[in-house]
Amino acid sequence: MALLPGDVRIPLLGFGTWQATGEAGFKAVLAALDAGYRHIDTATMYGNEEEIGRAVRESGLRREDIFITTKLPPERVGRERETIEESLRALGVDQVDLWLLHWPPADPGDMIPTWREMLAVRDTGLARAVGVSNFSTTQIDELIQATEENPAVNQIKWSPFLYDRQRHAEHRDRGVVLEGYSPFKTSDLSDPVLTRIAGAHNVSPAQVVLRWHIDHEIVVIPKSVTPDRIRANADVFGFSLTAEEMRDIDALGKG
Ligand SMILES: NC(=O)c1ccc[n+]([C@@H]2O[C@H](COP(=O)([O-])OP(=O)(O)OC[C@H]3O[C@@H](n4cnc5c(N)ncnc54)[C@H](OP(=O)(O)O)[C@@H]3O)[C@@H](O)[C@H]2O)c1
């Protein structure tokens, strides 16, 4: 778990749902909840909030035991509240745990007003925490300067091959939790460093990639619609990486 402002706890492992739509999306999320994921990542843009809501209800789990993130498309500037209300209706919940601005608005002048509105929406209780996605550190600093409120999270493309120690430290210094997306799409799962370490722990290179995020306290949200992979991607808590292995994996990126 990582801690967000407002005493909100976010599980380090979440389930990605981009391109998991319709009946396949519903089944994938149900399988994920059954496999032990307690954190689901969606977005207005993914068009699957209804299916996710249905899977959450059918899982039989308590709402408060599942962390749900959705995202605001920046072209909805001026219609922020209406957009989260649509998300909540589709999901069938009163509140999401995290609401992210999906990417920086095309018009930079829209950035601060949108962020202010997201903070106001959070204050009315429709989201427990608010954050951003695909933001640079400079853009995060602009939000903090204007409102004195740091985004709880910045969700960005991340993997061992994109590892950037300095960028990670910039997030930590600002109290922003780093959440990585596309961990597999940006990885070479046949890389010899990953296969060697996977062999040493009797796990797969994909599991090593996920465990590496968790050992760095970076949130990671792998997506799969394949039942075996959904389960394997959740089974990453039975081993941990040594300091030397972490350093070898870090070295796949910029260091
Ligand atoms: N904020 C943003 O702008 C943004 C952008 C992109 C993604 N995201 C979020 O991040 C999530 C994850 O990123 P992503 O979907 O782009 O990519 P990803 O999770 O890196 O990769 C998903 C792909 O990897 C395959 N896969 C899953 N488990 C595997 C395993 N154990 N071994 C080998 N291949 C495996 C999946 O196939 P199958 O499904 O066929 O099993 C799918 O083709 C998204 O679903 C979304 O929630 C956010």
Molecular structure report:
The protein has 255 residues and is of the alpha/beta class. Helix content is 42%, strand content 16%. The protein has ten helices and ten strands. The strands form two sheets. The protein has an eight-stranded parallel β-sheet with strand order 3-4-5-6-7-8-9-10. Helix 3 links the parallel strand 5 and strand 6. Bound molecules: NADP nicotinamide-adenine-dinucleotide phosphate. The site of NADP nicotinamide-adenine-dinucleotide phosphate (NAP) has 24 residues, from helix 9. NADP nicotinamide-adenine-dinucleotide phosphate binds next to helix 9.
Short structural summary:
The protein has 255 residues and is an alpha/beta fold.
Keywords:
alpha/beta; NAD(P)_OxRdtase_dom_sf; binds NADP nicotinamide-adenine-dinucleotide phosphate; 8-stranded parallel beta sheet; 255 residues
* Overall pLDDT level: 97
Low-confidence stretches: none
Terminal-residue CA separation: 24 Å
Bound molecules: NADP nicotinamide-adenine-dinucleotide phosphate
Overall outline? globular
Q: What strand line-up does the widest sheet have? A: 3-4-5-6-7-8-9-10
- Main β-sheet: number of strands, strand sense, barrel status? 8 strands, parallel
Structure class: alpha/beta
Give the helices and strands as they follow along the chain: EEEHEHEHEHEHEHEHHEHH
Radius of gyration: 18 Å
Helix content: 40-55%
User: How much of the sequence is in beta strands?
Assistant: 15-25%
With helices defined by DSSP (H or I, 4 residues minimum), what is the helix count?
Answer: 10
- Strand segment count: 10
